[in-house]
Specification:
By secondary structure, the protein is mainly alpha-helical.
Length: 123
């Protein structure tokens, strides 16, 4: 049985996906395919691109806003009664997010990427 095909839109300037186990290079493929466990909590979804993933045009890299902008992520996600605690909770999130998303552990995405042929590209 062939592997299922999933289409993801990736900025053309993004670096190529590294080999499995190689250091993360900000390609974004893993987070574009599905959120990690932390991303599930922050984005409220189990499928599709993580809502905490952000493209940084100035560096041509994808980054997790739970690490780079935890206060913004929490402000967008917390219920109104917790909004006054956003700053305090952001300090904690900023400290644990790298571990929760396995930053620095190496690429754990085994997806095989193939560029779309011109006939498959979206209009």
């Amino acid at each position: 049985m062939p592997a299922p095909t999933q289409h993801v839109l990736i900025f053309a300037d993004a670096p190529a996906k590294p080999a499995l186990g190689a250091p993360c290079n900000g390609c974004g493929v893993c987070c574009l395919l599905a959120p990690c466990p932390l991303g599930v909590l922050l984005s409220g979804q189990r499928q599709g691109p993580c809502r905490a993933l952000r493209w940084q045009a100035e560096t041509s890299l994808y980054r997790c806003d739970a690490i780079t902008a935890p206060q913004e992520v929490l402000a967008a996600r917390l219920p109104p009664w917790l909004q006054p605690s956003t700053s305090l909770l952001a300090v904690g999130l900023g400290r644990v997010a790298k571990r929760w998303v396995a930053a620095g552990v190496g690429c754990d995405c085994d997806a095989e990427l193939e560029p779309e042929s011109p006939s498959e590209q979206l209009p």
